[in-house]
DNA sequence: CTGAAAGCGCTAACAA
DNA sequence: TTGTTAGCGCTTTCAG
């Protein structure tokens, strides 16, 4: 079944297709009030919706924004995407969300597909530290707005919206030092990118670290458990942990539980992102109980991130000459002391 | 900048556009091996990608699936969407994910937009108990495959993939009874739909309930806290809670903590979906501590849900005559006894 | 002011 | 076997 088209309305009202198009698109074209009203009325009566595909083909713009993230279920991405989707839809843009699974090939496929759909803008948290940067450059040069979010590529000219990880990490590490921690372990992701390196740099700014206290793992609980166990077996006077992301926390808790080290009382910790404890069995539960008091959290401002991203896109798409600087948003440190 | 088009290739190779189209689309058309190779080679050399917009306009199919859910950040939706996206992309479909915010108007807007983009299929967890069913019917009649997921509309003819909530709820409630619970409180969502009513029905199948022990709240922590406090103030010999969804758990824990009722030792509970405890402050932490042992969880099989959904779409799109029955997937009850 | 007409890149029916 | 051609529904230019 066909949707109602401009032609149908033109036929019904006895005016030209052009006239209908002009009226319905509110173009500043003079036309008789009589006709205008008739056109608007018929369009409404028949619930006319422009065929966005035909329009895109002609305009070479789809009214859509592509969003490519490594994983839409972890960290702050779900929330970021949700906020973005709502804001962009309010501005008349559809959002095409893609999972790159932190895999450059997969990301490339998605980018090519998005491109051949004429997206107007692309928001990306690049996979594998920007291997696809050349492709991104081509996309950008072909007229699509490219904006990095969360993960940015320092050697590329793309604008970005991210968190000022270095400053917050410095503050977080300083807090650990203030708690009497003399040996800071840094627990981070094996797969690196600039935004993560910023955090590590921030910690190094605040406290002196030996290379072997930097533990980089795949975000896989078993591996983290093992690496942390090894680290914690040493006599640990004055030890503390800085977590690059609290999504690594479960593994650390597993290790602490095994070694019967209560956190944070016997091992102060601090990390990025709110700890999310999913109870999927008695094992989980036992590990969570090793956390005996609330720990401070470095929380990124996801709402502001979405806000800035949406603003950049909508403003710049409406007025390509608008100037923008990249944004590094401050994170907030929640020093949540127990009040029990 | 324009992308490479069929015409460009035709010009470069000196054959007709049709020939190029046929070769590149692997249509069973006889053509000289010489030419075929040349075409394929030039296409690859210039990194040709078909203009999907033009193709959609012609075919009236976009190679895209719309997915509309009430909220893509809560419950099992993020995981479901992720799995779907990966599977569908592997089959050559792009996924358009939309948030209806459980708001019929917003949902309607999204549906209209999706429709005017010629999606091939629509996966929807309908908002507000299916107010937009007539629109869905129109979409279905206009040739777009419509499939309900998670939330289904019993009075409509759309196929669906959901969880057999009634059976699992019955088993869960029976477990409570087995634990010596003689008075089951049912904590559920105020906004109803069939899949939720199924759970309530299941509980009623297993235990007799008085109407006033059914507590229906907005999924808002403060309100839940208050309602649960009221319920728990009565002398509560033999009380237990059935949670329609463990996303309501935080409010219950707040109330239990206030009244110093340890869960589950003094108040057995069971509920749908894995409990997710986000620590966003000392208050949260204190409330989570009132949970002193693991509790059983009724876990929906999200992977199977995504699997069935993707299968339905891909098979039925490839072969519209294929017959399918709606699916009610069994949930799994995780009786996670503590081993500490 | 108004409308006819060209064409976006692709597909498919039809000629040659 | 191959190529020509007529659109898909919309926008936009250019005559009337």
Could you characterize what this model shows?
The structure is a homodimer of 340-residue chains. In chain A, α1 (6-13) crosses α2, α5 packs parallel to α13 (302-318) and α8 (165-178) runs parallel beside α9. In chain A, β1, α5 and β2 (94-99) form a beta-alpha-beta unit. Chain A contains 13 helices and 13 strands. With 340 residues, chain A is α/β, with parallel strands linked by helices. The mean pLDDT of chain A is 93. The relative contact order of chain A is 0.10. The first copy, chain A, has a six-stranded parallel sheet, with helices on both faces. Chain A has a six-stranded mixed sheet with strand order 7-6-8-9-11-13, with helices on both faces. Chain A has three domains: 6-50, no CATH class; 61-163 and 302-332, Response regulator (Rossmann fold), CATH 3.40.50.2300; 165-299, Rossmann fold (3-Layer(aba) Sandwich), CATH 3.40.50. The interface between A and B is large, with 64 and 64 residues. β10 of chain A pairs antiparallel with β10 (276-278) of chain B, so a sheet runs across the interface. Chain B binds a DNA duplex (16 and 16 nucleotides) through α2 and α4.
Distance between the termini of chain A: 65 Å
The CATH H-level homologous superfamily of the largest domain in chain A: Response regulator
Oligomeric grouping of the chains: homodimer
CATH class of the largest domain in chain A: Alpha Beta
Largest sheet of chain A: 6 strands, parallel
Helical residue percent of chain A?
40-55%
What does the radius of gyration of chain A come to?
Answer: 26 Å
Number of helices of chain A: 13
Task: List how many beta strands of chain A DSSP finds.
Answer: 13
SSE series of chain A: HHHHEHEHEHEEHEHEHEHEEHEHEE
CATH architecture field of the largest domain in chain A: 3-Layer(aba) Sandwich
CATH fold category name of the largest domain in chain A: Rossmann fold
């Amino acid at each position: 079944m066909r949707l109602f088209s401009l032609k149908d309305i033109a036929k019904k009202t006895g005016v030209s297709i052009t006239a209908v198009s002009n009226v319905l698109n509110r173009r500043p074209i003079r036309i008789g009030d009589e006709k205008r009203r008739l056109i608007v009325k018929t369009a409404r009566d028949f619930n006319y919706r422009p065929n966005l595909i035909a329009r895109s083909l002609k305009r070479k713009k789809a009214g859509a924004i592509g969003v490519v993230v490594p994983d839409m279920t972890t960290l702050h991405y779900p929330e970021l995407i949700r906020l973005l989707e709502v804001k962009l839809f309010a501005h008349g843009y559809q959002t095409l969300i893609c999972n790159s699974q932190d895999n450059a090939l997969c990301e490339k496929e998605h980018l090519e597909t998005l491109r051949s759909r004429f997206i107007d803008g692309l928001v990306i948290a690049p996979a594998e530290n920007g291997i696809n940067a050349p492709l991104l450059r081509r996309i950008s040069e072909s007229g699509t707005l490219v904006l990095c979010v969360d993960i940015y590529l320092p050697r590329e000219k793309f604008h970005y919206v991210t968190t000022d990880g270095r400053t917050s990490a410095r503050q977080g590490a300083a807090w650990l030092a203030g708690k009497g921690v003399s040996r800071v372990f840094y627990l981070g992701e094996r797969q690196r990118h600039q935004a993560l390196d910023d955090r590590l740099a921030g910690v190094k700014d605040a406290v002196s670290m030996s290379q072997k206290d930097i533990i980089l793992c795949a975000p896989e609980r078993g591996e983290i458990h093992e690496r942390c166990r090894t680290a914690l077996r040493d006599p640990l006077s004055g030890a503390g942990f800085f977590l690059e992301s609290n999504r690594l926390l479960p593994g650390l808790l597993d290790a602490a539980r095994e070694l019967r080290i209560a956190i944070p009382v016997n091992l102060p910790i601090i990390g990025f992102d709110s700890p999310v404890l999913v109870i999927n069995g008695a094992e989980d539960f036992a590990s969570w109980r090793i956390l005996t008091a609330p720990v401070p959290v470095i929380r990124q401002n996801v709402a502001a991130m979405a806000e800035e991203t949406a603003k950049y896109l909508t403003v710049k798409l409406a007025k390509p000459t608008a100037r923008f600087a990249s944004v590094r948003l401050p994170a907030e440190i929640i020093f949540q002391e127990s009040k029990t």
